[in-house]
Write a structure and sequence with these properties.
About 35% of the residues lie in helices and about 10% in strands. By secondary structure, it is an alpha/beta fold. One of its GO terms (molecular function) is zinc ion binding.
């Protein structure tokens, strides 16, 4: 690397360490920016403008040490991101604006307390993102592809013993990385392919080394159900996702937690957001916002680790990622983080990373209350269970934006609960709005427009559909999983009504929207016990006299596996048995 390129990289790394370092110098009472990703990008841009005039006299690791001296917030991340002796740029912290210091103080650490989530911001695509794992991924990516050799003298059982994994057995969603920046993965891998790492020479102590940008330490895999303990971990995946994923499923010394992943929430306001309240007050720390930030950090870190010098300014990179796409690639943007994340974190490799993170954490914190005395088999079971839940319940499901996110008006009247699981999924197109919506602002406006029409013109209590699918990569919650809709007259209580925004008389929706309706949404509903495994998918026109869901879409629908041509308008059988599930309060 040339001296100029090295200095450019150090400047960029210095920006990240400053974001951590500002934490220790809050100014009580100072004004702060709205909790928006645009504010974080603005903060980065301000730091980048100041960086060239500063002196490169302090190491990057010193910033992390200074930020985390009080409380030892994350010793594993601290160790991995200090692995190389890198010089950084020192900025005069008082020269930063009070607004910037207040923002960094609020968002640099993630936590869940009393039903509120802290350290999160609202992104332009409508998603909420935890900043801490995002920054960690950026820093790991700037340091380049790196592995840590795991030690022999772990507190766990000797690492040469084979461990049997539980059967996982679910298929990886058929998604492919759309960005050339993602490292090579096989689109045909399944969750059942529990991988074994290639035997490597083990280091007697913790050792940090460089690896080729084209080779990951976890790429060797085998469909066999036995695997050797990992000998290395990838610092990028550990600091963004693997550590937290493993710890989330450790409730006690030998007990796996069964807390659900991916809880959503609502902002107090969307224009100037300040407070984020979770929909489940007992949510685990691995909320949707945290997992969004972890995936964004992993994807952007992976991109940075392979990007040629000079690397782009972080403010530009984030603007592109949360906008139209990195380097003009619309596939590498936040809307499609789950699809790209599934390609980057295939289950066999992720099991090894979670397992390795727990082994490394045992070494760094021998008295860790959740890990003390656990052997390799127990660690492997935790890693496998955590990976299964993450890949099936989060990566394998579509991102559903709650009603509060698109600005829903209150429900009029009292909603009627559904008797779950249901047996049908009815497919609609909205017809009006006719153009597909490809960004959050347009999709949210379409949702409000349809709700207004359904309530004021049709006289319904709410928007009629259970869910609405945009061409922006997101599903928008209508009446949701638990309440009877107004979408298919005479059959509203028997199935979910799912509409795709647009007129599909002569053309088809985006592939991502089709995949959601055909595969992701019903698969997740079946897994959650909301839809029967033998469910049938029907077009609106099969039950009601209408052209919906449009000729082009209906002709495609007829080729889908769960489509049934034999259902007649007046002979649809009773949907399902009653569920013992108690519907949650409706979020209005």
């Amino acid at each position: 690397m040339s001296p100029g390129h090295w200095k450019s990289t150090m400047v960029v790394q210095g920006i990240l360490w400053i974001l951590y370092g500002v934490l220790l110098q809050p100014e009580p009472g100072t004004a702060t920016m709205p909790l928006l990703m645009d504010s974080v990008i603005q903060a980065l841009a301000e730091l980048e403008q100041k960086a060239p005039a500063t002196e490169a006299s302090y190491t990057a690791s010193s910033w992390l040490l200074s930020a985390q001296d009080s409380g030892s917030h994350n010793p594993l991340r601290r160790f991995l991101l200090e692995g190389q002796t890198l010089k950084t740029i020192k900025l005069d912290l008082p020269s930063l604006s009070p607004e910037l210091q207040g923002l960094i103080e609020e968002v640099a650490r993630h936590s869940v307390q009393n039903g509120k989530e802290y350290g999160v911001v609202l992104a332009p695509d409508g998603s909420t993102v935890a900043v801490e794992p995002l920054l960690a991924g950026l820093e790991a990516g700037l340091q380049g592809p790196r592995v840590v050799n795991l030690p022999l003298d772990s507190t766990a059982t000797p690492p040469d013993a084979e461990t049997t994994f539980p059967d996982i057995g679910a298929m990886v969603p058929d998604v492919r990385a759309t960005s050339p920046g993602l490292r090579g993965v096989s689109p045909d891998a399944t969750f059942a392919d529990v991988g074994a790492m290639s035997p490597n020479d083990r280091a007697a102590d913790l050792d940090v080394g460089d690896i080729s940008p084209d080779i990951r330490p976890d790429q060797a895999s085998s469909p066999d159900t036995k695997a050797n303990p990992p000998t290395t971990v990838d610092s990028l995946l550990v600091v963004t996702l693997a550590r937290d994923l493993g710890l989330n499923f450790l409730q006690g010394p030998h007990t796996q937690s069964h807390s659900e992943l991916g809880t959503e929430g609502c902002w107090d306001q969307l224009s100037v957001p300040r407070t984020f309240t979770l929909l489940d007050p007992e949510a685990s720390p691995l909320t949707t916002a945290f997992l969004n930030g972890a995936l964004d950090g992993a994807l952007l870190g992976d991109y940075l680790s392979q990007a040629p010098e000079p690397r782009p300014p972080l403010s530009h990179l984030l603007s592109q990622y949360y906008g139209a796409g990195v380097a003009g690639d619309p596939g590498l943007r936040s809307n499609f983080r789950r699809q790209n994340g599934a390609a980057l974190t295939l289950a066999p490799a992720l099991i090894q990373q979670v397992w390795g993170a727990l082994i490394l954490l045992q070494r760094l914190e021998p008295v860790h209350p959740q890990l003390q005395g656990m052997n390799q088999e127990q660690l492997a079971q935790v890693a496998t269970h955590a990976t299964k839940e993450f890949t099936e319940a989060f990566l394998g499901c579509p991102a559903i934006l709650p009603r509060c996110r698109w600005g829903a008006a209150p429900y009029r009247g009292r909603p009627t609960p559904l008797h779950l699981p249901l047996a049908f999924l009815y497919v609609h197109h909205t017809y009006v709005p006719a153009p597909p919506c490809t960004d959050f602002l347009r999709c949210a406006a379409n949702m409000r427009s349809m709700q207004l029409f359904h309530q004021d013109t049709r006289g319904w209590d709410d928007i009629g559909y259970s869910f609405v699918v945009g061409s922006d990569g997101y599903v928008y919650e209508g009446r949701g999983w638990y309440w009877v809709g107004a979408h298919t007259r005479g059959y509203n209580s028997r199935g979910f009504g799912v509409a795709l925004i647009g007129n599909y008389t002569a053309e088809l929706p985006a592939d991502s929207a089709l995949r959601v309706v055909r595969d992701e949404l019903p698969r997740c509903a079946v897994r959650a016990g909301l839809l029967r495994p033998d469910y049938m998918m029907l077009g609106h026109r099969q039950l009601v006299h209408t052209d919906c869901p449009g000729e082009a879409l209906f002709n495609l629908l007829r080729t889908w596996p769960h489509f049934n041509t034999n259902v007649k308008p007046r002979t649809t059988r009773t949907a399902s048995r009653r569920s013992k599930r108690k519907p949650p309060p409706m979020t209005l």
